[in-house]
Design goal:
This protein has 413 residues and is an alpha/beta fold. 42% of the residues lie in helices and 14% in strands. The strands form 2 sheets. A 6-stranded parallel sheet has the order 2-1-3-4-5-6, with helices on one face. It comes from Natronobacterium lacisalsi AJ5.
Length: 413
């Protein structure tokens, strides 16, 4: 287990984007938790929404006076092959779960659990990867409630994978899901907490004209003098970059000079990423107007989402899809699929459009609709930012999460 480096973060940094009452409620909740020590555990410090969330949540909690640590599991490729299969199985498609896979999973989770030495009052395990640690942690920390924060879409899991994960449910005191529809694991208590973006990070902060100009140059030969549609997401089969390519090709028949950007990073716990990136790049290699980009700096992603005319998120499954709120926060309308948390963020006909996940033709048509009306795109952009301000910024999520912690530690309060 290792502790990632963390940025400095103060609650005061959010005063410009969050109402004062919410900040005061956060300080009140933090006061209730001032004597508690909290541990967050997940499987990677880089790539993906969970790592991004923890990189903000943990330092803000410490700023509030809550003793909070974040530990990342140490594991090899064999373990991550297994946990990616678990992730895929929970989202509805996977290879059979073998005894060898189960043995690899248990060996790595047991080893990591043995490395937790500090005493904690509350443990938060994120997603399926650390679930195997919970039995040992419960033995070592018998008075510490365990919260399982599930970020995965559990609406249509493969039975054997759901059973494998459910076997650890008796170690969970409180389960937190991103949507009520995901609550397929029994736990004594459950809550729904929507994820959020952090508006003060490099990826989401305001950029001045000089910074935007610098990032435009960095993205050359992509030209923002011609129309641009973008999808930002990990290279993962569930994100359906191939479907987005199909939607772009349909839209290009009507929108002259249309360019497509497929940008994404490689999560440290996802062994499929590089292979899929190479497949997508190969599919697009003959089209100079398709730009397949990986591991861009956060500031460049920020600029790309601001400078693009339309953002697409055509996922087939999606736990939540924070990249949707990222784009909406920057006043860029989104064409997204009707899966997971995307419909919570995209208000169809108000800040973007929703299409069925397997309907690339409809996605292409909606892209065209947005390009045909500049005034509509501007109106959608204004609606988009306000929707995210109200529902999907970090202080709101943190208030919900601290409420769960108080309930777990003081169930009779």
């Amino acid at each position: 287990m290792h502790a990632p480096s963390l940025p400095d973060r103060s609650l005061d940094a959010y005063a410009a984007v969050t109402e004062r009452d919410r900040l005061e409620r956060l300080r009140s909740l933090a006061g209730t938790l001032s004597d508690a020590s909290v541990l967050h555990v997940n499987s990677t410090a880089t790539g993906g929404g969970v790592a991004e969330l923890l990189r903000s949540i943990v330092p803000v909690c410490n700023d509030l006076g809550i003793d909070t640590d974040w530990l990342v599991m140490d594991a090899d490729d064999d373990f991550f092959e297994v946990t990616k299969a678990i992730h895929n199985g929970l989202q509805g498609s996977a290879e059979p779960l073998t005894a060898e896979m189960e043995a690899i999973y248990r060996a790595v989770t047991d080893r990591n659990a043995a490395e937790v030495e500090k005493r904690y009052d509350l443990v938060v395990a994120h997603d399926p990867q650390p679930l195997g640690m919970l039995e040992r942690l419960a033995e070592r920390l018998p008075n510490a409630p365990i919260v399982w924060r599930c970020h995965v879409d559990l609406t249509d899991p493969v039975d054997e994978y759901l059973a494998f994960v459910s076997a650890y449910a008796d170690r969970i005191d409180h389960a937190v899901f991103s949507r009520a529809a995901y609550a397929a694991i029994d736990a004594p208590e459950t809550s729904v907490v929507y994820p959020s973006i952090d508006p003060v990070t490099e990826k989401n902060r305001a950029l001045d004209a000089a910074e935007l100009a610098t990032e435009r140059d960095r993205l050359d030969p992509l030209s923002f003098d011609a129309p641009v549609v973008t999808q930002v997401s990990r290279f993962d089969p569930w994100k359906d970059q191939f479907g987005t390519l199909e939607a772009y090709r349909r839209a290009r028949e009507t929108v002259p000079g249309l360019q497509l950007v497929l940008a994404g990073g490689m999560a440290g716990d996802d062994p499929e990423g590089l292979e899929l990136y190479e497949q997508v790049a190969s599919e697009a290699v003959d089209d100079p107007d398709v730009h397949v980009l990986t591991d861009l700096p956060d500031t460049t992603v920020n600029a790309l989402q601001r400078l693009s005319d339309v953002v697409v998120q055509k996922s087939l499954r999606e736990g939540f899809g924070l990249v949707v709120s990222e784009a909406l926060w920057k006043r860029t309308p989104v064409v997204g699929s009707t899966v997971g948390g995307i419909p919570l963020q995209v208000e169809d006909g108000r800040n973007g459009y929703l299409v069925e996940p397997d309907d690339a033709a409809a996605a292409g048509d909606r892209i065209v609709t947005l390009f045909e009306d500049d005034e509509r795109r501007t109106e959608f952009g204004a609606n988009a930012r306000e929707h995210v301000r109200e529902r999907f910024l970090l202080p709101r999520q943190l208030e919900d999460l601290l409420g769960v912690f108080v309930e777990a530690l003081e169930p009779d309060s």
